[in-house]
Each structure stands twice: as structure tokens, then as C-alpha cells.
What does this fold into?
Amino acid sequence: MEEEGGLRRAASQPLIRTEGVDAATSPQAGTIVFGAEQEPPCLNGFTSGCNNTWTSWTAGTALASPYIELPNFTIVPYMSGPAKVVRRSPFTLAFTFKKGAKWSDGKPVTAADFRFTWQTIINPKWDIASRSGWDQIRSVTGRGRHVRVTFSSPYAPWKVLLDTSILPQHALAGADFNSVWDTNNNNPHNGQAMATGPFKLQSYTKGQKIVMVRNPTFFGRKPTLASMTFVFRTVTDTEIQAIRGGEVDAIYPQPQLQLAALRGQSGLRVQTHPGTTLEHLDINTGAGNSNPLLGQRWFRQAIAYAIDRNAMIKQVYRTLNPSLGPLQNLSYGNSQKGGRRRDLDVRRPACFGASRHDGR
It folds into this structure.
């Protein structure tokens, strides 16, 4: 069970070394060395075992999507023009990939790639992390850059679906998708790195680092950096020492009290912003849990209501972002407009939960 309302949306906490680093100002900056606190299990973010944030933040930067989510949570066209609902029944979208959208081997991104992406995601042979929305598509048609997507029923979050990386049909057709991109993003037929995003994968040394380099065929504004090197520093103390000693130029750690001491260190800049990570409680109510009372609603409520969430957040985050408070919902981020906060001020009886025996 997720505790009603959640605890809070975690504050993102990037730390950037400002001494001797010109990556933010030089039009032809070199590389930035980033301390990654996790190593991706593999590089194929579509598969269930590798669909995590650090896969997306590293190798995932090579693959662009028709739409993209901005920091303010709006989803806007990216590798395509705006999609339009051209029919209500059956629900049908139409969009066109940008003229400059091409793979790093020079081949254009086409409707065939979108169709291949759909067919790959819904193929039961492949260990796909999520088929949500894609399994509602009836057909994908189109020629060249023009795509037409027909759904079996109206699909409201179609922008979320279009915020999915596109796969190269000409490179991956016939390959074993469960393993083909475990350690690289190459065309298995010729070994060329495949990319549509601002960077492409240059190398991956398991247990050590991932190197991404500027993609010269990227359709958008070319990145300032020539390359990004992600070195794996998966122990918190090691990660902090790496930024202290100048071994890395930036880190993006989980918020924690040890980071507070870095605020006063010369040559470091600490940026704190509301993020989209939900801190919450999960209670196992199924067979095999350690206490049968966990299956009782009143008992779970007693646990949830007994936690002083304000005090917990103050203790953990007061030195990092003192403005944080309980989120009071499971849907909106701290910085997102329009979020509704529920009043969870519960009047607790003297012996909370003791009188509940109805099994709910």
C-alpha cells in the first residue's frame, strides 16, 4: 500500500564543479565527467530489466522521440511536428517527422520506424517494460515522414505515448531484441552506432564508464559539449569524495544529509529543485508477509497516520531544501501548477485502530 498522499516529491540535487570547467560557456567545450551513482543493468531501456533512470540519462540520450517532456511537465513536439486527431472514430492521430530527423548513419526517420517500434513493443517474445497505450493501437500506416496511428478506442494520454524513443527498423529488424542492445546501440549488421538524439554512444566499459559523444546528424540544436563521460560511483561516500577531489565535474545524487557539507566548499555549485521522484511507503498485504494484520485496512491506516511526515521531512531535508513539505497527493509534483493537495489532518482517537474489527 502506498501511504495516502505520499511523503513528498524529492528535491533534485545536482552538484557541479565550477573551477576549471568551461562546459557551460565555451561554444566548443570538451568533455564533462559525470559521477553516476548507478550503473545501468544494460543499455536497452525498453526491456524490463534495464528500464531505469540511469539508462535513460546515459545511453538513452542517443534516442529521440516524436514528443518530449519539458521541466515544467508539458509534453511538446520534438522529433516531429504537432500531432493532430484526424478522426474520432476510430480514434486516429497523424503527425510528420521533421525533415532533418535522421539516424546517425544518414538514413531518415520514417513511418516504418514508428511501425517497427510499435510492433517491437507489443511482441510477446520481447521482455518489454511497459506496453501501455501501444497495445491499444490497431494500425500504423504512412509513407516517408508521414505517420498515421489508429487506436482501437479513444486514447487520452497519446502525448505520453509519443514521448517514447523510436527504434531503427533498418538496423534491428530480425534481431533478438531481448539482448541486441545490452552493451551497445549498434546496428548489428555493420557495427555502426545508432542515434537520433543529441549524443551517440561511443563506448561502454562494464563496471567503469559510459562515453557519449556529440551526434553530428542530430536534427536539433547541436549540444555544447563534445562528449559526456559517466563514471560509475555507486557508493555515496565515494561519489561525494569524487566531487570533492575534482575526479568528476558533476554528480546527481539522491538527496541526503551528507551533501549539506558541500554547500560551503569553494568551487562547487549545489542546485536544488523539486523533482519528480515520489517517496512513499509500501506495505505487503499479500501471502507470506510477516504479520497478518497488514491485511487489515485499519492496521495499515494506524501505521500511516502514526508517522509524523512533517518531522521526517524536516529531519532529512532541512539542510538541503527547507521549503519541502508533505506532497499530500500521488499525482502532482511540487513545482507543477494545478496540483490538488488533500487535507490529511486526521483526528486520531486515543487508541487509534483498536476498535476496528470489520476486516476493512
Notes: DSSP finds seven helices and 15 strands in the chain. Confidence is low (pLDDT under 50) at residues 1-11, 21-27, 348-360. The CA atoms of residues 44 and 222 lie 24 Å apart.
